[in-house]
């Protein structure tokens, strides 16, 4: 069997300090040792792979030989305190492709109205902290998509309160799974969760058997707690992807202007390519892990029981062996007409939280529903020259992302 090499260290903590200081840089450094690299966090030997075939074998082919490593255990080494377990089995709702198509076709006008009502308060020349703006916008849109409720509905209010508490207590991306007993929470949080559960029960009691257009109806056999978890996991992926997408638009004004000038199907297709490329450079799930439950051979490597293999979409997506000019923003690489061959398991922006094509399409369509009306209504420029990525639960922005919005005299046409 092959031995997996990596950087040496004589510290008791292994490579923990290097990982803490800059996890993204550390992972990039590891990839220079090859497509399978070993390193040490404390006394535990871990591995990182950037080989698509090995990723496929670990995640899919030999899935029964591995279990998910909770994100709490992954980022605990970053000294982010008071984290809760991220339950990979409770990710984006397991919707079907036919549902996604029908859902967004049915609610296209409603979704556009929600976004337009939010940005109608924006004036030309306004300074906006987009990280904050997108949180409420994503929450309102997702509340309608999940539950069919309006902005002023009690359920939306309770969800907004929970989102605010999560932002104040932790980082916006913190997912608290499983939800602790109500008695362990502060009164405001306990009241908000009880309010959500009460509203969900009311929706369930009064829904029609003919109403199958909302995501809530797909989650028929799940508990209120699981539904709430799915909501906030999906919410975090959407608001994170929207923030990085708007940043890439600000970085590439030519791409922004091109989107603004396109119409109809051409605009939809090019927006799809732009979102895919933004997710390639800034995947929300930048790192996830698999732990062997038994000794297992993958390719020519033997992994012992309880050894952990990390997979970093952030590193995978920047592998120059598979992506031409990997650090450049090139939406055309996802053009269907070019028939670019990207290995099936090389592109994992949502890790295993949204593993099916339909789940990815759902998140991407929500991102488009939020961002396309913004970029076709305003010209957007960023205030800070560079925003640095930071590896936390999700791939967050290290600095606040502020933008200045201005309007053209003539309205820009959007296909939404």
Automatic annotation (TrEMBL):
One of its GO terms (molecular function) is heme binding. It comes from the Bacteria. This is Cytochrome P450. It comes from Priestia veravalensis.
